[in-house]
Structure formats: structure tokens, C-alpha cells
Amino acid sequence: MADDLNTLAFELGERLKSKQMMMAVAESCTGGWVAKVITDVPGSSHWFERGFVTYTNSAKQEMLGVIAKTLEQFGAVSLETATEMALGAVTNSHAQVAVAISGIAGPGGGSDDKPVGTVCLAWAGLAQSSACRRQFSGDREAVRRQAVAAALTGLNEYLLQYG
């Protein structure tokens, strides 16, 4: 699976380089794993600008500008929060696109409406954003690994559609 993540990161880097674009990441439940996979690619400094690991709500607000009312109304694991995280990563960096991840990796923390494995992802540029909610299975590491893969795949798809 590590090879799959490396391949996804390499392909994303090739696409970003061809478009002369930089990316940023805003991560919560993955704790910097997306940034790690990206920076494993030699030469990623040509297309990776920075990463934000915002594990707490206050970090999401302070570093990314997530609105307190969004967190109160929808929660940290929501399409709305993930979208604000991605937009905040673009706004607070020199990147043209960003991906954001917020989720419940487990083993605890889930609820009936947001069970363990719920992950919200968002992709944003200066003019367009998209988001999705996914339900992953497995233990904490499996959920996080699937979230990283979904983030990289989704940004590649975002660039094909909007980039």
C-alpha cells in the first residue's frame, strides 16, 4: 500500500509541475501523513508549498480561519469544516490548490451520525472547491491510510476538472 501512496503522490506532483502549480495540505485525523507521503517524492519542493496539521478546533480557527459557528453547527468532521480548511490552506499559503482532511479514525470518538471511519475531504483553489464524505473501514491506521489515498486521488481529479 505504501507503494500505491507513493505512486499517487508522484502522479500528483507530475500534474502540478506540468501546470506550474503549488499545493498545500490541511490535515486533522491524518496528522501530517499526506505531507509525509508528498515529501517522500524527490523534488516535491517544486510543487508542495506547505502543510497545516490542525488537530484541534482552535488550531483550525487560528491557522486556517475556520469559522467558530461552522464548527459549532456542523462539527469538526463535516463537509463545511473541511471546505473551510481547504480554502484556509490556499488563503494562508502561496499555493494555488489545497486538500483538507478531517475525520474520525477511531477506535473511539464515533457517533450514530458520524461513526468511526467517517472522513470529510475537501479540495480548493482560488475560485472553486469541492468536498465529499467517505466511510472507511478497518482500524485507525487503515482509516487514515485510506483517507490519505482519497486525498491524493481527489486532488488529482480536482486538477483534471478545475485546474
Overall morphology? globular
The overall average pLDDT, rounded, is 96
Helix content: 40-55%
List the helices and strands in order: HEHEHHHEEEH
How would you describe this structure to a colleague?
- Helix content is 46%, strand content 20%.
- The protein has 163 residues and is of the alpha/beta class.
- The chain has one domain (2-162): Alpha-Beta Complex (Maf protein), CATH 3.90.950.20.
- A hairpin with a 3-residue loop joins β4 (118-125) and β5 (129-135).
- α1 (2-18) packs parallel to α6.
- The longest helix is centred in the C-terminal third of the chain and has 23 residues, at 140-162.
- It is globular and about 45 Å long.
- It starts with a helix and ends with a helix.
- The model has no long low-confidence stretch (mean pLDDT 96).
Task: Lay out the secondary structure.
Blueprint: H1 2-18, E1 23-27, H2 33-39, E2 48-53, H3 57-64, H4 68-74, H5 79-91, E3 97-103, E4 118-125, E5 129-135, H6 140-162
Helix pairs in contact: 1-6
